[in-house]
Amino acid sequence: MSLNRRSFLQLSVLSSLAAAGLGACASSSSATATASSTPVAGGTLRLGYETEPATLNPQLSSQDTVAPLLRNAFDSYLYRDEEGVYHPWLAESYEVSEDGLNVTLVLKDGVTFSDGAALDADAVLANFDKFADPDYTATNSVGRSNLASWAKGQDERTVVFTLSQPDNLFIAYLSALGSTPLSPASLEDDDLKGGGPTIAGTGPFTITAYQQGSSLTFVKREDYNWAPQELTGRNGAAYLDGVEVSFLTEAATRTGALQSGQVDIIYGVPAQNVEGFSAGGFVYEEILNSGTPYSLYLNVSKSPLEDLRVRQAFQKAVDLDTIIDSIYYGTAKRAWSSLSPTSSFYNQELEAGSVTYDVEAANALLDEAGWTGRDDDGFRTKDGERLTVRLVSGAIYVRDSRDTLNLAIADAMKKNVGIDYVFEPVDAGTETERADANDYEVFDNTYNSPDPALALDLLYNSDPAKGVIARGRYNDATVDQWLNTARSQTDQDQRAQIYNEFQTYTVTEQAYLLPLYVPRNSLAYSDKVRGTLVDAGSGSVFSAYNIYLAG
Q: What pLDDT is stored for residue 175 in this prediction?
């Protein structure tokens, strides 16, 4: 099966989108590239990065912020544009059956892994067999939770996936890093879970060296020739010879390294430096993430947040406009909903006041809920128990001044309403233990996903196979029904209506969460760096594939 661009779009509209409800029928480029002169081949890009990956295996990574790094070495079968249309990448084409239950994927001819192995149907099946291994906890399993079987099609480049029910998320999953193929030999590698130089992907660069806590090195693949051209605007090998990444977790260190010329580009620009890097020999660039905003998810399964009145008081107790504006120097966008405003399903009506700052009303709600006492430190009490709410946060996810933000919220909570809000960053193992033991009251998270069904299932669905991080423990049959229906719904208008009701219900009616701000991917770089690329469809910066160094 070979499709030109026009016939592919017809297939996307008439088959994939109509049958499986996967997006709009229009197509447009997602690329936003820096104005540039004629591209120059050669040179090494020196990159200062805020966050170090917990793993270099893209199938196991749960850190949205490291996606632009991993994209250097790992491609996907499809990609999604900003209009919601999915296009081939490693695939030559794909087709969804009329009943939405079969997805046929035809691979491009000639694609190879960096170890020389061919990307063929057998390699794809080997990866999906690995995903089925219960000891291999690949991420985004919710994206394939309705996948019933997978088999080779009529030739070496065709794979047929059978679903138990129509599923908007499966095509989205094929565009995600979590499904990126690794070479069959890599799947047997002793260092598979950690990833690194021994793991072979199909990307434009290969990982050649990794020093934990320090650096990561990529080198160009000369034979690369299968870029997603609708996004990148070209094909062939990368311009750069390589990319040298330095992990610079401290904001001042990153900005100082760029200003002094030690690095060419930094990822994760501190809010206080945005204005300074927008001129004077530097360029600043950002994109708002899709999926969900950075929010506090309230654990309704235990005291004190099992009481709706306490949750509502928690929402009203803090002047978020002032706090967010102060901490992010007026550069951050306040969040109002359980979805990011970049989502086509965003309910903009919530911006009229879904979460209002009202100290008087918050205190009245807490009085009504029986938290009328005060201890020596000024915190509210009930039956001798302090009104304590603990946020147990994984330290590897604490970035973008979120520690400062939560400490400011804690100070306001104490001053305004007498809630003892405790911010506890812990290591990954402790976070998992505390989550399993239900030893927390608040879970903080943002999940960048092009289709909202993935993030919302993960965070709200009571089915353990779907709600992998549903630590609000809502167990709400109404929410489950909405999410399950919207995930399989083929009519996009009906999906929008469901998600509108969901957003109003979760934020306003049930106060299940406190939305804070919309995360962004941000870059600053010297003016010799050209060709940076923003992938609007995924709400993320793309890889270094299009970048070159001028002069």
A: 92
Give the tens place of pLDDT for each residue, 2-59. 333 323 333 332 233 333 333 333 333 334 444 447 899 999 999 999 999 999 999 9
Identify the segments of the chain with pLDDT beneath 70.
1-36
Give me the sign of the Cα torsion angle 181, 185, 187, 193.
negative
What is the spatial distance between Cα 461 and Cα 486, in angstroms, rounded to a whole number? 12
CA 372 to chain centre: 41
In single-letter form, the type of residue at position 355 comes to: V
Sign of the CA dihedral with 233 first, then 236, 241, and 247 last: positive
Q: Decide the pairing of beta strands 520-526 and 282-288.
A: antiparallel
- At residue 25, the pLDDT reads 32
CB-based contact 388:422 (threshold 8 Å): yes
**CA nearest to 377, candidates 343, 421, 441:** 421
Cα distance between residue 431 and residue 55, in whole Å: 17
88, 145, 150, 154, 172 from 101: Cα distances, Å:
19, 13, 12, 18, 15
Work out the angle at residue 484's Cα, subtended by the Cα atoms of residues 479 and 487, and round it to the nearest 5 degrees.
120
Give the pLDDT score at 551.
74
**What is the sign, positive or negative, of the torsion defined by CA atoms of 52, 266, 448, 446?**
positive
| Residue 428 tokens, joined | 């990954």
Asked if 203 and 236 count as a contact pair (C-beta separation under 8 A), the reply is no
Contact 237, 224 (CB under 8 A): yes
Q: Which residues contact 159 (CB under 8 A, 6 or more apart)?
A: 104, 105, 107, 121, 124, 125, 150, 151, 152, 153
Distance CA 311, CA 494 (A): 30
Contact 36/530 with Cβ under 8 angstroms? yes
Ranges of beta strands (E only) in 237-280 are 242-247, 265-267
Each residue of 441-477: pLDDT tens digit?
A: 999 999 888 788 889 999 999 999 889 899 999 999 9
Q: Tokens 């081949």 correspond to what residue? A: 41
